[in-house]
Amino acid sequence: MGAISLSGLHFLAQLNVTDGFEQVGGARFITGASMLIHMFFAEIFVGFALAAPVLQAWGARTGSPRMDRLAHSMARFNVLTFSTGATFAVLFVVLLVGLYPPVTTSLFTHFFYFIALAMLSMGLALWGMYSYYYKWDRYSVLNKKRHIALGFTMGFFIWIWMVIMTGIDTFMTTGGPGAPAIGQNIASFGAAVQGIFNPMFTEMVLHRTFANLSWPAFALAAWASFMYIRSKTAEDKAFYDWTSSVGLTWGVGFLLLQPVVGFAMMYSLKMSAPGGSGPAAGGAYERLTEGGSSNLLVMNLIFVVVLFVLGNLAMYFGSERHPDHAGRVPIRFFALLAAVTGLYAVSPLADFPFLYMRYIMLLVMLLATLAAFVTYLRGRLRFRYGSPGGSYRVVLMAAGVLAAVLAMNMGLMKSNSRVPFTVYNQPGYTVEPSPPPTGFGQ
Length: 442
What we know:
Radius of gyration: 24 Å
Number of helices: 17
Shape: globular
Oligomer: single chain
Helix content: over 70%
Order of helices and strands: HHHHHHHHHHHHHHHHH
Largest sheet: none
Distance between the termini: 59 Å
C-alpha cells in the first residue's frame, strides 16, 4: 500500500501543471471562467443587497406585505448563495497567485491600502447581511427602522467594496494615465488614489451600479415567472405575478440608463489612450472597436438591442392585467418602433444614408422604450395580479437568461480589451506566463 502511495506521489510530482492548463484551454481560460462564475453570483448579491432594504422601506411606507416578503426572499437568496460566489472568488485569487505571480503581487502591494479597505467593507457588509436576515422575525416587527438600517448597512458597504474593485479594474484597463507604474513595494496612499481615480473610474462605477440593479431584476422577473407555474395557491400566484412585474419595472428602468453611461465610458476610454506608436498606441479603446475585441462589442450591442426588444414585449404582454387594457395600444406602437430602430442600428445597413444613422436609431429606440415604460408605469397602478399570459412568462424567462449572458460577456469584453497586457501599457505584465513581447509603446 505504501509503495502504491509513493508511486502516486512520484507521478504527481512529474506533472507539468502549466501544460495541463494549456490542454484544458489555457491559463486565461481557467482563470477567466472562475472569475465569471464568481461575478455571476457577486453581481446578483450586490443588486439584491441594494434593492432589499429599499423594497422593505417602501413596503413599510405603503403598508404592502408583498414588498416585505420580496425583500426577505432577496436576503435569503444572498445568504444561501454567498458561499458559492465566495468559493470561486478564493479560487480566482489562488489561480492569480499561482499563474500570474508578478502582476498579482504588484497590484496587491500598489493598492494595499484600498484592498484593506475593501476587505473591511466586505466584513461590515457580511455583518449587516447576516444580522439583517437572522433578526428578521424579531426586528422587522418590533423595531422596523433598526432592521431597515441593517439592510442599508449591507447594501452600502458591499457597494463600497464594488467601487474599490472597480477602481483597480479600470486602472488595469487604462493603465492609469499619469499614475505611477506598479511595482513590488507598497505604494504611497496618494499613488494608490491616483491609480483608483483613473479616467474610466466614474463612468464604470455608474455603469456597474445600474447594471447590478438591472440584470438581477430581469433574473428576478424570470425566477418569479417560473415560480408562478409551480405555485398552488391563488395568493402565491398573485405574489409571483406581482414580483415579475417589479423585476420587469426595475430591469427596464435601469436598462434605460445604460446606453448613456456606456457612451460616456467609451469616450473616457478613448481619451485615456496613450500616444506614440506600437501595440499600445491606440489603447484599450482601439482594440475594443477595431481589434480582437471588436466582435465581442458587436455581439454585446446585438444583445442589448434584443434585451430592449424583450423588455418592450414584456411590458406589452404585461399590460393586459389592466382591467380596461389601458395603455396596450400606445405600448404596442412604442415597442414596434423600438424594435425596428434597434434592429436597424445593428444591421449591415446601419450606416445608411450617413455615418451617424446608427446612433440616431439607437437614440430613437431608447426614447421609444422610455415612452413605453412611462405608459406601463401609469397603468400598473390598477393592475390585477394572478393570471399572466403564457407569452408574458416566456418573454421574461428569455430576458432573464439574455441579461445574464450579456452581463458576463460585458466583463469578458472589457478584460479582453487590454490583451496582451494585464495592466495596459506596462510591458512587464502580460496575460500569459511568458516573456513579454517586444515593440510596446511606452
